[in-house]
Amino acid sequence: xxxxxxxxxxxxxxxxxxxxxxxxxxxxxxxxxxxxxxxxxxxxxxxxxxxxxxxxxxxxxxxxxxxxxxxxxxxxxxxxxxxxxxxxxxxxxxxxxxxxxxxxxxxxxxxxxxxxxxxxxxxxxxxxxxxxxxxxxxxxxxxxxxxxxxxxxxxxxxxxxxxxxxxxxxxxxxxxxxxxxxxxxxxxxxxxxxxxxxxxxxxxxxxxxxxxxxxxxxxxxxxxxxxxxxxxxxxxxxxxxxxxxxxxxxxxxxxxxxxxxxxxxxxxxxxxxxxxxxxxxxxxxxxxxxxxxxxxxxxxxxxxxxxxxxxxxxxxxxxxxxxxxxxxxxxxxxxxxxxxxxxxxxxxxxxxxxxxxxxxxxxxxxxxxxxxxxxxxxxxxxxxxxxxxxxxxxxxxxxxxxxxxxxxxxxxxxxxxxxxxxxxxxxxxxxxxxxxxxxxx
Length: 441
Fold this sequence. Notes:
Elements lengths: L16 H6 L4 H7 L3 H10 L12 H6 L9 E6 L8 H8 L1 H15 L3 E6 L4 H16 L15 E6 L9 H8 L23 E5 H13 L1 H5 L9 E8 L5 E6 L4 H8 L9 E5 L8 E2 L9 H6 L8 E6 L4 H15 L5 H18 L5 H14 L7 H15 L1 H15 L24
Helix pairs in contact: 2-6, 2-9, 3-6, 5-6, 5-7, 6-9, 13-14, 13-16, 14-15, 14-16, 15-16
């Protein structure tokens, strides 16, 4: 297995400049400074590096959208790793912060940016302290600041701590938070590349995306692109959690079977248990079942299977958990984290929680499953950002793939509370004085 990002990650002192330099740190920056910005951008573009934060958009193409010329432009590193199941960026920042800093400097060189921010989630207090120390070391050594290593490129890098809001992981909500406002998603267009932070052109990338840049410059775009698949190049850090024997972060080449990740690296579910379903890309990705384990783990293959790679945070769920339990936990999380700015997300997430609790309380009928599926369809694609979709896609997939189990849950709950015959119950949305009207888009 090819290791790039996690190669030597556990070496003692790697978070310090001395150890990082001894391992070849900042050599990629020196190489990049000897190139023109267009040449550096070409290397990133030809590597076909796709964003590692969830959307999978090509970094080189994203950077090329920024206008050229001398003006205040910004790079924002999205380190607000709040997706349930994701913890890869935490390890990268904690153990090798200088690789992120080097990647940021090279990326700003490519896009001719002079100001950069790392927006880190508030809960990552230890990682933020480590990053602040690394930034100070980099400034003292001339890797940050005015005329870096005697070149014409200057960069001011600021670390900004968030305050625990999941919505600030959405790129425009993050920008509002950086500007001191409440973290709400913005209407697009204009897109951040044209009008972002402080109304200036802004490049926003995930930690792992920027962390990968020095390796591309070191290897060369052509060599890097040979790793993985044609449309999913390079390596990826995968976080595995849930009902798994060896949870943790593992670096893989795109294109290996999911079975090899879950069983070969993660050790599979605990002895005596079987996989019921799994989230391929964090809690916001539609679930797949044990019949999908031989799928190629890459962006396109997972999309064709009806799910997504997302943050590459695999959550394994075995048969000891009910579908209702997982769906309700998901819906409650996203309802709590919704900013409430748009109707489909604000109302749809709360309605989904109420529908699932109705099943749990023995008040539902099978018709409620149809209504719930309909609500998810009304949410998807109709929100200002993807938070609503992040709940609707996995919940919708659970209803679709495990309808039989949910119908059995409905029957069992009714028997448990002694609610009488199913036909005596009015379906949710027809008459429910507690829930209110169905959300309408």
